[in-house]
Design brief:
The protein is an alpha/beta fold. It contains 15 helices and nine strands. Helix 4 links the parallel strand 2 and strand 3. Helix 4 packs parallel to helix 5 and helix 10 runs parallel beside helix 12. The chain is globular and about 55 Å long. The chain starts with a helix and ends in an 8-residue tail after the last helix. The protein binds S-adenosylmethionine.
C-alpha cells in the first residue's frame, strides 16, 4: 500500500511518514487525487459560503507577524457600529449567505455586553443562519454568554502547537497553553470549533507542523483553517519570506485525508499569494470560501499582511466572479448553513471533550 493509500484508509501516519510527506512533492499528484475523492464522498460538489465581517482592526495583542498588532502605529484604525454590522449581514443574506463570521482584533471596546447585543440582534433577525465569532481569547464565562446569546461557531487558530515556536511568534504576555485552554472551553460549551495555523511562519520546522497535526487529532475541530504566512512590511517579521503555496496545498490535502468530515476554507491568504490560490485550495480538498462582507471603505484597513485581497473575487458583491472561480475548480457554491457532516468513524474514535487531553 502506498503512503497516500495508508493515509486515506487509516487517517493517520507515523511521525517519520508525515515528515516524508511534508518534505517532498513526489506524492502530491496521488495525494490531491485521493483528497478530492474523500472530499466528494463527504461533501459532494458543495462549497459553503461564509460572509466575513471584520468588526475592528484595534487589537491589544502584539503578535509579531500580524499587521493589526498594537504596536503598528501606521495603521488607520476603525470599528464597525451595530447598525453597520447589521447592514453587512443584510447584504450577505440577500447574496445567499447563511453564515456570518464576525472577526476582529482583541479590542476591549467589544466587551461582553456589546458582543452579546450584536449576537442577539443577528440571531433575532436571522434565525436560520449560523453565527461564527472570531474574537480571540476570552474568559470561559464570556464564551458561554455569547453561546447563550445565539453564537454557534468560534474560530481561534492555535497558530502553532509547538510551545517554543509559539513563543517566537508572540510576546511574553501570550502562551500556547492559554490558547489551547480556550479551544477546549469552546468545545465543552458546545461550539463548533475552528482552529488552524499559518504555513511557513518564521522559525517553523517540519516538527512544528507535525505537532500541529497531532494537536488537531486531539481536538478534532469541526473547521480547520490554514493559510500561508504572508509578510507585513510594518511588523518585526518584515524581512522574513512568506510561506509557500505548494506546502499549503499539500497540507490542505493531508488535512482532508486525516479529517474527512472537516470544513476547510480556501483562505484569503491563499488567494493573496497566488491569483489561482483559492481554486487550487478547493482542488486540494478545501470546501469553504469566506468572502468579505465588510464595508468597502474599511476592507483595506484590515490589513493582516501585505496586499491582502480586498477587491474582485474577495468582495462578496462579486457573486458571479466567485461562483465562476468555484466552478472552475469543479465545484458549486450553495446557499446552505453548511454544518459539519457527521462522521460515524470519528464518533467512535474521537477522544471525549476534555481539556486535559
Ligand atoms: N483576534 C482573533 C484571533 O486572534 O483569532 C482574530 C483575528 S486574527 C488577525 C486572524 C488570523 O489572521 C490569525 O489567527 C492569524 O493566523 C492570521 N494572520 C495574522 N497575520 C498574518 C500574516 N502575516 N500572514 C498570514 N496570516 C496572518
Amino acid at each position: 500500500m502506498s503512503l497516500v493509500e495508508t493515509l486515506y484508509r487509516t487517517r493517520n501516519l507515523s511521525d517519520t511518514e508525515l515528515t516524508t510527506f511534508l518534505t517532498t512533492d513526489r506524492f502530491d499528484q496521488e495525494l490531491f487525487r485521493m483528497a478530492t475523492e474523500r472530499r466528494r464522498e463527504f461533501y459532494g460538489e458543495d462549497v459553503y459560503l461564509r460572509g466575513l465581517v471584520e468588526l475592528t482592526n484595534y487589537c491589544k495583542n502584539d503578535c509579531f507577524y500580524c499587521g493589526i498588532r498594537r504596536s503598528n502605529t501606521l495603521l488607520d484604525r476603525y470599528r464597525l457600529s451595530l447598525d453597520t454590522i447589521l447592514t453587512c449581514c443584510k447584504t450577505g443574506y440577500e447574496l445567499g449567505y447563511r453564515t456570518f463570521v464576525l472577526q476582529g482584533g482583541e479590542d476591549p471596546f467589544f466587551h461582553d455586553d456589546r458582543v452579546i447585543e450584536i449576537v442577539s440582534e443577528i440571531r433575532k433577525q436571522y434565525p436560520d443562519c449560523a453565527i461564527t465569532l472570531s474574537l480571540g481569547e476570552r474568559f470561559r464565562e464570556s464564551y458561554q454568554k455569547f453561546f447563550d446569546a445565539g453564537a454557534n461557531r468560534y474560530l481561534l487558530r492555535h497558530e502553532t502547537a509547538d510551545a517554543e515556536h509559539y513563543a517566537k511568534l508572540h510576546p511574553e504576555s501570550m502562551n500556547l497553553e492559554r490558547r489551547k485552554e480556550c479551544l477546549w472551553y469552546l468545545k465543552e460549551i458546545g461550539y463548533q470549533v475552528g482552529t488552524g495555523f499559518m504555513v511557513g511562519s518564521p522559525f517553523q520546522t517540519t516538527e512544528c507542523l507535525i505537532a500541529d497535526l497531532r494537536f488537531l487529532q486531539q481536538l478534532q475541530p469541526a473547521m480547520i483553517g490554514i493559510g500561508p504566512f504572508i509578510v507585513h512590511r510594518d511588523t518585526p517579521f518584515h524581512l522574513y519570506p512568506s510561506g509557500s503555496l505548494s506546502l499549503t496545498l499539500r497540507l490542505i490535502a493531508m488535512l482532508r485525508l486525516m479529517f474527512p468530515y472537516a470544513l476547510i476554507p480556501a483562505t484569503t491568504a491563499l488567494g493573496t499569494i497566488d491569483p489561482q490560490g483559492r481554486e487550487l485550495g478547493l482542488r486540494a480538498g478545501a470546501n469553504v470560501v469566506m468572502p468579505n462582507l465588510s464595508p468597502v471603505e474599511v476592507r483595506r484597513k484590515y490589513e493582516l499582511y501585505d496586499n491582502k485581497l480586498h477587491t474582485d473575487k474577495e468582495a462578496a458583491e462579486n457573486k458571479i466572479l466567485l461562483a465562476n472561480s468555484v466552478a472552475a475548480a469543479g465545484y458549486a457554491t450553495v446557499t446552505d448553513i453548511g454544518n459539519v457532516k457527521p462522521d460515524n468513524r470519528q464518533q467512535k474514535t474521537t477522544p471525549s471533550c476534555s481539556k486535559t487531553q
